[in-house]
Amino acid sequence: MQLYYRKLHAGLIMLVLVITAGCKYDKEELLYPAPNPPSNCATTAASFSANIFPLMTAKCAIPGCHDNTASGGRVFQNYSQISVAKDRINIRAVIQKTMPASGTLTTEEINMLKCWIEGGGLNN
After folding, report:
1. How far apart are CA 66 and CA 71, in angstroms?
2. Contact 95, 52 (CB under 8 A)
3. 79 and 48 in contact (C-beta within 8 Å)?
4. How far apart are CA 119 and CA 56, in angstroms?
5. CA 6: distance to chain centroid?
6. pTM, full prediction
7. 65, 98 in Cβ contact below 8 A?
8. What is the pLDDT along the chain (124 residues), one digit of tens a residue?
9. Is the dihedral of CA 98, 99, 104, 107 positive or negative?
10. 105 Cβ neighbours under 8 A, 6+ residues apart
11. What secondary structure does DSSP assign to the chain, as a single string?
């Protein structure tokens, strides 16, 4: 009888180990991102100098992030630095919504970035 309980106990332990091994802590918002509402780039302002640069200066190129210390890995102080990183900005800020670190962008800001990038990331 004791042997039966040992086998049962070992079996239960194995079952618990198998079940818990499949558990992991993923961010649901990264696995199932909320879709961006469609943007009408014909009516969405996407000028680098008037819209994108002020947005980047206010939300990204701040102390501790993408300022001239590059503590965020990249510096976003001018057009060429931002333009080179536009594909990464698209992934992190528009698609994944994991940047800026201070909080997500508004729908309007996401649409501005999206339209600027889809329009070729012009220095306009």
Report:
1. 6
2. no
3. yes
4. 17
5. 49
6. 0.68
7. no
8. 777 777 777 777 887 777 766 656 566 666 666 666 667 888 887 899 999 999 999 999 888 888 888 776 899 999 999 999 999 999 999 999 999 988 889 999 999 999 999 999 999 9
9. negative
10. 55, 59, 93, 97, 113
11. -HHHHHHHHHHHHHHHHHHHHT-----HHHHSPPPPPP--TTTS---IIIIIHHHHHHHTSSTTTTSTT-TTSS--SSHHHHHHTHHHHIIIIIIS---STT-PPPHHHHHHHHHHHHTT----
- Residue that has been written with the tokens 């239960």 in this structure: 12
- The first and second tokens of residue 86, run together, are 């536009």
In the block, residue with structure tokens 């503590």: 71
